[in-house]
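Researcher: I'd like a candidate sequence for this fold, 436 residues long. If you have to choose between options at a position, lean toward the conservative one.
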């Protein structure tokens, strides 16, 4: 039997419907205008009506309240989870390159959930494959206009996509994309490239097919496959030389499409540039799409470079000798910035690349580092007055890393203050002490 999750209220905004009608944190919202709630999408849609009858539960007792919603007044409710009708829809594919399938054994159970839920795609930009949608899902996408959606295409040729995903339903990707376009849904797409499988001429065909659906299909992000040490023996990552060849191909496409469409449409993830030793383009090359694409590894380096002045101001007060932790992929870029920073401020900044021994050294991005690997790399080093680490490492439950450790572990081991650094798309930096 599918487990249901009550719509438990965890926050109520002031000057909102929720505060005005007397709801409390801990109440469970059951229905709006006699409509049972499946998820937070329903809350947002049905809670936008001008007249509201809210059915909720408090202390085991059901209660209701009626009121008129003022023009522009938000419902103002936050919830413990996004989905109330069960676990996320799971992936039905058997992709050899699936990162979740390459997770280390013995980790937290949620890390093994291969979510493929169109609702989480709409809410958070999660990429989905469209292979598990039933008729009611299609009906709801159209009825509630769940746009935009983010789709993992990988390849548009039926046989190539089936070879990658091992699900007969996956071969119908173009039919599914056309169906979404026909009902007015905007789409962001991605292709994870696997050497010799969906690159080269196959990539060209994917681009041609998706461009034909522009502007409903807004863009295509191209990402190299990532492999942990638990990957299939039939797979490999791109060499640096191969990454340069792929990048050249993508940039040629981008140049051609910019002349035809007015936008680049095809956006290589930062890893292609870093692996090929090429500086990512200036911000205009991303055509204003970064808010939608940056979580997929596109434009992060450019945002870092453009926000360097703000970062200097944020880091300078931390101490005369600092250690900055990062992954091996970004370390050369960060080291170049550290030299500029030291010349400008007189502060010593040591960049510490951390090899990912937990997942395997082919995993090179900072966001997938574990506290254990960081601590082992810091041990025995003079780290100075402060350690700065990317906040992205601690995005798991309760702010813990993938190995279940909190950043305080680093501070305890190193014996000096630790700061978490994060950047928003606008370039502004937040450098926050653990004690603050």
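Model: Candidate sequence:
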């Amino acid at each position: 039997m599918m487990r249901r999750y009550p719509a438990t209220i965890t926050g109520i905004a002031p000057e909102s419907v929720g505060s005005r009608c007397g709801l409390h944190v801990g109440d469970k919202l059951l229905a709006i205008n006699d409509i049972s709630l499946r998820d937070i999408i329903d809350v947002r849609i049905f809670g936008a009506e001008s007249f509201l009858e809210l059915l909720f539960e408090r202390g085991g007792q059901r209660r209701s309240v009626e009121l008129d919603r003022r023009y522009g007044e938000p419902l103002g409710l936050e919830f413990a989870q996004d989905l109330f009708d069960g676990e996320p829809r799971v992936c039905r594919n058997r992709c050899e390159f699936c990162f979740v399938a390459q997770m280390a054994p013995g980790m937290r159970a949620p890390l093994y959930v291969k979510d493929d839920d169109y609702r989480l795609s709409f809410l958070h930009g999660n990429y989905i494959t469209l292979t598990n949608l039933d008729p009611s899902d299609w009906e709801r996408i159209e009825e509630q206009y769940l746009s935009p959606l983010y789709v993992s295409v990988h390849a548009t040729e039926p046989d190539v996509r089936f070879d990658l995903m091992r699900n007969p339903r996956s071969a119908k990707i173009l039919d599914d994309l056309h169906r979404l376009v026909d009902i007015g849904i905007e789409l962001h797409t991605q292709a994870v490239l696997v050497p010799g499988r969906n690159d080269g001429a196959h990539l060209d065909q994917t681009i041609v097919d998706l461009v034909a659906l522009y502007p409903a299909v807004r863009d295509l992000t191209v990402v190299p496959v990532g492999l942990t040490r638990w990957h299939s023996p039939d797979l490999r990552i791109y060499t640096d030389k191969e990454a340069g060849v792929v990048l050249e191909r993508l940039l040629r496409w981008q140049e051609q499409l910019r002349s035809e469409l007015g936008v680049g449409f095809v956006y290589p993830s930062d890893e292609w540039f870093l692996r090929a030793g090429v500086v990512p383009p200036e911000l205009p090359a991303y055509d204003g799409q970064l808010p939608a694409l940056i979580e997929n590894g596109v434009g992060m380096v450019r945002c870092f470079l453009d926000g360097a002045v703000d970062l200097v101001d944020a880091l300078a007060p931390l101490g005369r000798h600092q250690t900055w932790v990062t992954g091996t992929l970004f370390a050369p870029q960060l080291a170049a910035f550290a030299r500029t920073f030291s010349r400008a401020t007189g502060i010593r900044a040591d960049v510490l690349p951390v090899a990912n021994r937990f997942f395997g050294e082919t995993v090179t991005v900072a966001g997938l580092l574990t506290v254990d690997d960081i601590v082992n790399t810091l041990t025995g080093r003079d780290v100075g007055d402060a350690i700065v680490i990317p906040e992205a490492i601690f995005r798991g439950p309760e702010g813990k890393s993938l190995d279940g450790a909190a950043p305080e572990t680093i501070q305890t081991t190193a014996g000096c203050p630790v700061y978490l650094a994060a950047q928003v798309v606008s370039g502004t930096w937040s450098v926050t002490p653990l004690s603050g």
